[in-house]
Amino acid sequence: TREITGHTRVYGILADPIHHVKTPQMLNALMAREGRDGVMVPFQVAPDDLATLVAGLKTMKSLGGFVVTVPHKTAIVDLCDAVSDSARRIGAVNTVRREADGRLIGEMLDGKGFVGGLLAAGIDPKDKSVYLAGAGGAANAIAFAFVEAGISRLTIANRTRAKAEDLAVRLAEAYPKAQVDIGNPDPSGHDIVVNGTSLGLKDGDALPLDTARLSPEQIVAEVIMQPEETALLAAAKAKGCRIHFGKPMLACQLDLMAEFLGMRALPGAGK
Ligand code: NDP
User: Fold this and answer.
1) Distance 132 CA to ligand 1 centre (A)
2) Pairwise CA distance, residues 246 & 118, whole Å
3) How many angstroms does the Cα of residue 137 sit away from the middle of ligand 1?
4) What DSSP state is assigned to residue 129?
5) For the segment 216-231, what is each residue's pLDDT rounded down to a tens digit?
6) Which atom of ligand 1 is nearest to the CA of 139?
7) 23: Cβ below 6 Å to ligand 1?
8) For ligand 1, atom 7, which residue shows the shortest CA distance?
9) pLDDT class for 250, splitting at 50, 70, 90?
């Protein structure tokens, strides 16, 4: 068993609510396997208190960094001292490293993790048409990663249409050749259908799209990890679609997060 000492590197995960997160369990197991003296703990923080917490975390010398999830991934961007080009374009950050001088460096790994999870399941999005429900932090990252992966066209449908339009504009700026449209709840006519909203997390949530319009040749993928089989995936399965769970997205991100947060090569870490 590992002991937490005065040398232990501390990592956090920022969320609200936080009880459902799986990242600490997985990254703590990864650090244990790597023989690294580090621990990730939950930091539950309300949106109004995020800036205060982050200002304090900058001063915490034993902090290696933190993972950021709902509802903070957009607000954290301006609280970082620097963010990667892709995170800047996406407008969201989900992993922040604290440098020795206290600078906070932000990166966005959701989209890379999502596409990596599809590839690991043998689903190559290249030249495929994609319907994406949502235009929040995760959906933004997934949209950029899909375009980078060479999809043929993208339809974005979001409750707040202005956010879908804004995402389409930023995609067009970064990738002038990308074919991007704004859609409605009807996902028909697309090879891959993705829920990138938070609908499905809670019992009684509405469906993120019109499942009556699904057909068996479509692949339906989910960002929600818990429950594993959301109402959307259950409906898609009943329609004969191939379904893809939310978990591979996280699994694929863990390696990227561990790398970015220095969990594999901590300076001065004990054995
Ligand atoms: P955001 O808060 O940034 O975005 C939420 C999205 O869901 C928006 O598009 C929002 O629409 C939509 N939405 C929320 N409530 C409703 C509603 N009642 N009706 C219609 N649309 C709604 O969240 P994130 O993008 O960061 O996260 C979304 C989900 O992705 C979360 O559930 C999270 O758990 C999951 N996720 C999973 C990961 C994984 O590794 N599997 C990684 C990252 C996230 P609007 O713009 O209109 O508000």
Assistant:
1) 12
2) 10
3) 7
4) E
5) 999 999 999 999 999 9
6) 25
7) no
8) 197
9) confident
Q: Say how far apart CA 164 and CA 271 lie, in whole Å.
A: 48
Angstrom distance (rounded) from CA 159 to CA 119:
28
Domain ranges of the chain: 9-109+250-260, 111-249
CA of 1 to the centre of ligand 1 (A): 37
Tell me, yes or no, if the two domains 9-109+250-260 and 111-249 fold the same way.
yes
**Edge-to-edge strand order for the sheet containing 180-182?**
180-182, 153-157, 129-133, 192-195, 219-222, 242-244
- Does residue 270 line the site of ligand 1, with CB under 6 A? no
Average pLDDT over residues 162-170: 97
- Cα–chain center distance at 118: 14
Give me the pLDDT at residue 255, please.
87
> What's the pLDDT score for residue 86?
86
CATH of domain 9-109+250-260: 3.40.50.10860
Best substitution site from 70, 202, 225, 250 to test ligand 1's pocket, by max atoms within 8 Å of Cβ?
70
CA distance 183 to 164: 9
Diameter of the chain by CA atoms? 57
Q: Which residues are catalytic?
A: 73
Q: Which CATH superfamily is domain 111-249 in?
A: NAD(P)-binding Rossmann-like Domain (3.40.50.720)
ipTM exceeding 0.90? yes
**Which ligand 1 atom sits closest to the C-alpha of 20?**
34
Q: How far is the CA of 140 from the centre of ligand 1 (A)?
A: 10
**Ligand 1 neighbour 225 (Cβ under 6 A):** yes
